[in-house]
Amino acid sequence: MDATGTGDEKRVRHFRQILIWPVHVLPPKGGAQPNDVAAALAAAPGSPWALVDDEFGVPAEFQERHYNEFVTFLPSVQRFLYGQGLGKSVQRGYGESPIRVLRRSDIDGMRVTFAAGEAPVTFAIAHVDLYFFFDIDVVTLALEIHADDLPLTVAQEAMFQLGRAYPAYWQPDGQPGHCPHKVEWLSAAGVVLASSDYQDRRKFLDFVCQHRAPCVSAHWDHLLRPFTLHHADQSGAFRYRQLEYYRMPLMAFLAMEDTKCLTAADHRRLALAAGPAGDGGNGSDATRIVGEGEDLRLAARASGDEGPIEAGTRHYVSQHAFVVVGDAANGFFTDAERGYLGRFRHQHFLLFLIAHFHRASLLMFSDRLAAAVSRLNVADATLIREFRIETRSALETFLRFTHRYWFSDVSDQLQARALFDQCRKHLRLDPLFADIRQELQDMSQYLDGDAQRRQNASMVRLTVVTAFGLIGTVSTGFIGMNLFDWTDYAPLTKVALFASIFVPSLVLTLYTVRKSARLSEFLDAMSDERFGLAHTLSALRRVWWTK
């Protein structure tokens, strides 16, 4: 597939794609929070990641597009994304944004060979970022690439193939299915920093066979360094696990030379982020998504402050993709500062990021709860105690997630609201949230029931000990009534007499506690008037002899 193509091909004058990959970060030893992981990652020797400075608070760097981005969101979401206040006017930890962003700048390009024997296509890299969220063990990789003057087929292949963490299968000739033939990270000088290894079938097969978990291609593994896949044999302080399907969610922006040349089949394939004709795709699903995308376009045009978006601009939303197609001749559509391209890269990116962060967090909670339940053994007191601690911790974290991060509405602007609603619907966030909350409630009810059971058992033991201790209390009470005159005895004799009473009483009390459950059954049998003496004696015998 030649990136230059022929003059008769449908052309994409500007193509931009943002890949989003949420992963579950395992806290390092010591229980460090994700924000601590972000700081530790930035400070690690040889780490390519550096904290991104916030433009907010620096008037010389604050631009109009930052303002447009800020006012898009509701106040509660503004506080989540940007924090509030400056300096000492806001207490540390409350006014700060819970988001930390790390960026690496050593990778400048992405060279892709989509099929063996074809000429490679080079994409420029705008950003490689890691988004950390305080108190949530989820980190999201955001990779933004762009290129100019591409055939539509190349753009479709990029949308379909680039965001693959590992191959789904291999063709008979050994080529990976639905994956590029080769992906290379390039430095600013054109030096290859890392390459994909999708063809290494043995590597992926052996890893799954050994670890019961999928492996990650070498170029993605290099991009996340010094993060290490949890099941990998390499050592590392920062480890992660995959949460979702191997195809990463993506956003795509296509400024077409002529939008009228796109056929209905083209629109369906773009809606599904499918490859060129011949790579599959479900027509009925595509038709449904196109219809929803048309509704989103109409909602955008209904708003009076959305800018001069022409009728040729279309939006498509699905579970793993948000695609925008428009006319390259429309200056507002291609304007990266005040136009739609700027909105796509900032406001819409944040909407898409929030929706997928919600889903990744809920999946992380699901994995965490499943792991806690799998380790539970009601016959092991230590495991029960660990399960209680893990469940309480998950409940507290979920409560903070609900109040700090969970939004059903993020904006009152019609287009932004419609986009976020479509993302939430396709990701099925509300049913997933309800399932996780129900699981937590079930686990909490189990803990409450277990605590009540243990409390009842303790009350039974105390009652039994009190009942049988009454005999000793009455007996020893006679000593206090001067039944025996011990006033003239020597002190040591008094101590010996006291010990002769105290030690047997202590032993009897401990023994009574030990047998309290069976003694409770004996007391129940003795107090039940429906049964005779034989039944009572049988219950007494079971205190010491059981089958």
What would you note in describing this structure?
- This protein has 547 residues and is α+β, with helices and mostly antiparallel strands.
- Among the domains are: 26-51 and 99-246, no CATH class; 454-541, no CATH class.
- It is built from 16 helices and 13 strands.
- The chain has helices at 34-43, 64-71, 75-82, 152-161, 201-211, 218-224, 264-271, 283-302, 331-334, 340-374, 381-404, 414-427, 429-480, 491-514, 516-527, 533-541, and strands at 11-26, 50-51, 99-103, 109-113, 121-133, 136-151, 182-186, 192-195, 228-229, 239-242, 250-256, 314-317, 321-327.
- Strands 1, 2, 3, 4, 5, 6, 7, 8, 9, 10, 11, 12 and 13 form a 13-stranded mixed β-sheet that branches.
- A hairpin with a 2-residue loop joins strand 5 and strand 6.
- Helix 7 packs across helix 8.
- The termini are far apart.
- Residues 87-95 and 280-307 have low confidence and may be disordered.
Concise overview:
The protein has helices at 34-43, 64-71, 75-82, 152-161, 201-211, 218-224, 264-271, 283-302, 331-334, 340-374, 381-404, 414-427, 429-480, 491-514, 516-527, 533-541, and strands at 11-26, 50-51, 99-103, 109-113, 121-133, 136-151, 182-186, 192-195, 228-229, 239-242, 250-256, 314-317, 321-327.
